Amino acid sequence: MTSETNQEFNFYEDELIDEKIAAQQTAIEKEIANEQKLVGDLIELNTLLNEYLAEDTVYRSKITELSERFRYMRKTRGDGNCFFRAFAFRYFETLMGKPDEINKLKDLVNKFTSDLSQLGYNSFTVDDFKDVFIEELEKLNNTSDIRLLEEIFNNSGSSDYIVVFLRLIVSCYLQNNSDFYLAFLETYQSMKDFCSHEVEPMYRESDHIHIIALTNALEIPVGIIYLDRADQEKATPHNFPDDSNPNIFILYRPGHYDIIYRN
Amino acid sequence: MAGSALRRLMAEFKQLTQNPPEGIVAGPISEDNFFEWESLITGPEGTPFEDGVFVANLSFPNDYPLSPPSMKFVSEIFHPNIYPDGRVCISILHPPGDDPTGYESSSERWSPVQSIEKILISVVSMLAEPNDESPANVDAAKMYREDRSKFNDIARKSVRKSLGL
Q: OTU domain spans which residues (chain A) (predicted)?
């Protein structure tokens, strides 16, 4: 009996450590949330220079060069959803005041919803996300007021639901095209496994495969500009798909995606 | 946020009422608060928990289903994957990357397309097949591994207790 009590005592100590770690993590997340909006205001891209030291010439010269072609940007919150959120904001922005294109996207959304149901997803787990996605999309039919879009994407209720639905589209697309994409997986045995661990859960970061799948699923090309310490003169552009001519551009710095605007 | 969570919880409640999985009953404790549920879980057949009816509460966060609920047994239950205070520790109650007991990478994880039903079904499988690697209750895991008949005895006692016998 004594040993049992001791065991329990140890368990509560472990428990305290777990709780401290959790509390610290929550505090860090709060700090990030306070400092960075989900999707930030339009700012000049060369303000990024402030983030790098004077002697960091690789980054500074790449930023200066890049800002000649991409004058403006919006930062997104680094919460693991940044690729999806950046893409969604910029994509929705290109659809504002274009009811025909919005209708085309709605048809696609309905197609993916029925594909998900074919794959065995319960409608009560999918419909809320789809409904919010479509509801917010429809608000953009007859407006070009960017404040409305900023509001939609900074309200976590609508913003996060849009992110979840894009994640579901990627999951659905990958599962239905797994013959091709399975070759890209390293640590997962099945596409279903990969999607349920790396695509569907919120806050999981995006990799190449997510980007390729999303742009193919929606047939919306995207250009990713890689800004890193690699010893080159310019930030490296990469279009998805390769031979496309995108309107949507996203800046990638190791671990994070922000929206950028081509002049 | 809470509005969407409420809508989802109501849809799941309806679904669980119309098509209840075998051996499981679950619903809000009170109509005033859909974020606190009670579930009754029947011990799976052919296991020492057979015939028991165990009560566990589920607590849902405001951003459910983006984040998972937490689950805690009210009935006394001695099990490797249940903390001595009743909290359930299984992988589906945690998003990937959040590894309180070092789950295997292939284990089922929380995401917004999981559901209360899937959690409860996972809990039933957990009762049938305890995972004694990196347990929540070290004593229970040790006994399960080293003295199965004693473990089974304690389980059967908890069954009688769960039935008020």
A: 71-263
**Pick from B13, B4, B2: nearest CA to B115:** B13
pLDDT digits (tens, 9 = 90+) for A92-119: 999 999 999 999 999 999 999 999 999 9
Q: Is residue A31 part of a domain?
A: no
What CATH number has the domain bearing residue B22?
3.10.110.10
Domain count, chain B: 1
pLDDT of amino acid B103: 65
Domains of chain A: total: 1
- CA-based max dimension of chain A: 74
Give the residue numbers spanning the domain of B8: 4-163
User: What is the complex's ipTM, to 2 decimals?
Assistant: 0.90
Q: Which of B16, B26, B71, B89 is catalytic?
A: B89
Q: Does residue A202 fall inside a structural domain?
A: yes
The question of whether A256 is a catalytic residue gets the answer yes
Looking up residue A158, the CATH number of its domain turns out to be 1.20.1300.20
Beta strands in A17-174 (DSSP E): 43-44, 72-74
Which residue, among A4, A125, A203, would best test binding to B if mutated, counting the most B CBs under 10 Å from its CB? Answer: A125
Q: Is residue A208 a part of any domain in this protein?
A: yes
Beta carbons of A187 and B138 less than 8 Å apart:
no
Distance CA A77, CA A85 (A): 9
In this predicted structure, what is the pLDDT of residue A149? 98
Q: How confident is the model at residue B1 (pLDDT cuts 50, 70, 90)?
A: low
Task: For residue A24, name the pLDDT band (cuts at 50, 70, 90).
Answer: confident
Q: Which helix (H) or strand (E) holds B132?
A: none
